[in-house]
Amino acid sequence: MSTIIDQYRIKKEPYYHSVADEVKLYEAAYSVRMPMMLKGPTGCGKTRFVEYMAWKLKKPLITVACNEDMTASDLVGRFLLDANGTRWQDGPLAVAARYGAICYLDEVVEARQDTTVVIHPLTDNRRVLPLEKKGELIQAHEDFQIVISYNPGYQSLMKDLKQSTKQRFGALDFNYPSHDIESEIVAHESGVTVDIAEKLVSIAERARNLKGHGLDEGISTRMLIYAGSLIAKKVDAHAACRVALVRPITDDPDMRDALDAAVSTFF
Ligand code: ADP
């Protein structure tokens, strides 16, 4: 039984640079097993943060990347057919609730609404997960906690979390780290010097100002790390920025030119 959950333990400390008081706040939230929502744009450190917290709290972490095809059964579990007939297989949420893991549902708003509803009974003081098809009610393990990520920038009227879901969570705001911290992160993760990392961050800052003015989303920390990794492999900085920063986020020729010009300002 313990081997099922042991595979989800994080053995090595993940590199995480705190940006404010999020570590303390999360520890307090975990101590009362408050369901948590990590809000912020993609690639700004939410997943890394939850990995770090799971390591720090010494709890296993089960991460589920949500998508629009995901059904409630993908989370909860299903009967499978095998040579001996049918057998039940717990889904990731059931494993987390049964054995006591932190369950991180990444981009939960992507999943269908029936999926979000299955987490409701786990988020109030009952802390139960009904396996309706199996006729079992899992009483969540005392270590279990549910964490979701949510990108407010993507939401439309059609795709948003219901208030009845949102109000079951405490929320921590994430954003791109400040200039100096982000430069340190990019240097650490990609292997470039802080000097080069700072230039990459400055390019991103320009692009982030264009969000809503022709860009749907700014250049993320993750993208800066990609660019830095190419530069660390001796790729020319202009080419690295084109490949990792500019081309992925826009197809618009004018916007490309504007971003390429920003790259030339710094390299
Ligand atoms: P999100 O889950 O918000 O989409 P990630 O957590 O995957 O983003 O962040 C992308 C990458 O950026 C991580 O793999 C990590 O290398 C880096 N990163 C972002 N913020 C931090 C931070 N505060 N400390 C350390 N690394 C970070």
Write a compact overview of the structure shown.
The chain is built from 13 helices and 9 strands. By secondary structure, the protein is α/β, with parallel strands linked by helices.
Helix content: 40-55%
Bound molecules: adenosine-5'-diphosphate
Number of helices: 13
Side-by-side strand order of the widest sheet:
2-5-8-1-9
General form:
elongated
Strand-residue fraction?
15-25%
- The average pLDDT value, as a whole number, equals 93
> How many strands, what sense, and barrel or not for the largest sheet?
5 strands, parallel
Q: Count of DSSP E strands?
A: 9
SS content category = alpha/beta
Gap from first CA to last CA: 55 Å
Radius of gyration: 21 Å
Could you name the ranges where pLDDT drops below 50 across 5 or more consecutive residues?
A: none
Question: What letter string, H or E per element, gives the SSE order?
Answer: HHEHEHEEHEHHEEEHEHHHHH
Descriptive account of the structure:
Helices cover 44% and strands 16% of the residues. With 267 residues, the protein is an alpha/beta fold. The strands form three sheets. A five-stranded parallel β-sheet has the order 2-5-8-1-9, sandwiched between helices. Strands 3-4 form a two-stranded antiparallel sheet. It has a two-stranded antiparallel ribbon with strand order 6-7. Strand 3 (77-82) and strand 4 form a beta hairpin. It is elongated. The site of adenosine-5'-diphosphate (ADP) has 17 residues, from helix 3, helix 9 and helix 11.
